[in-house]
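Archive entry: two folds, one per protein. Generate the first.
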Amino acid sequence: MLNEKLLDVLSHPADGAVSIVTNGDDGPHLVNTWNSYIVVTPDDKLLIPAYGFNKTERNLSVHNDVILSIASREIEGYKAKGTGFIVKGTTRFVKSGEDFDRMKERFSWVRAVLEIAVTSAKQML
């Protein structure tokens, strides 16, 4: 599911902002993180450390679908340098277990881990 170009964006050392959009009863809600914070599991799930994300968690407890915008000016796109992806998936918040412990070791401030099972990843640029 995750192609090589998206993995290049996620692993590039020049940090890029990642936007996470959820939908709540009062409409869309947006939070951001950094591409370097995202861990890709062997089964292509994305793990994102959550410090706040309280409204995101509330929204996802009702509608567990999420959309992410992930981009980098440093990775070659279709026609020039710079590419981006729209990633869709289903989610859950993980607060214990192996994935949580691994993320807590890397990010001491984490209160939960947003786990995203990717359902589509479309390159936009």
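Generate the second and append.
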Amino acid sequence: MIWYGLLVAAVAAERVGELFVARRNERWSLARGAVEAGRGHYPAMVALHTGLLVGCPAEVWLADRPFVPALAWPMVAVLAGAQALRWWCIVTLGSRWNTRVIVVPGLPLVARGPYRVLRHPNYVAVVAEGVALPLVHTAWVTAIVFTLANAAVLTVRIRCENRALAAVPASLTSAAA
């Protein structure tokens, strides 16, 4: 349980680091005339991700979930892959990456890195993490609840992001940033 708590704490610390990056990038974007979309769903997304980080150790402790190595180690690998994909997205988008939907007018859509293959690769990382982190220590209820709630939030989020990105002029969408 202690090692699992440390793993969840490490993921939480990584999230705090992301928020610092996002805040810096938000200032950069706003200084260039950026427009934010989807403010209404952002608090639900924050609450959901916080719930994941609280729910994982809480379920393990309260329900006395066992550590099952045959499940845990593959989930640790999925979790590591999700983190690698997330940071690939962050590095690829550079100053444009954010936890919010913020679009800087006049900049072309990014079509390199993981964005060559997927429109929203960061959300693939979020989905994988939402399954893997709880299952590292068999917190299956947390995995199910997060996955279902996350599907609802991501439906709203992706629609919002697609609308915001569609506002980028067509002449810019074919260029690689």
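Annotation attached to the second fold: The chain has one domain: 2-173. The chain has six helices and two strands.
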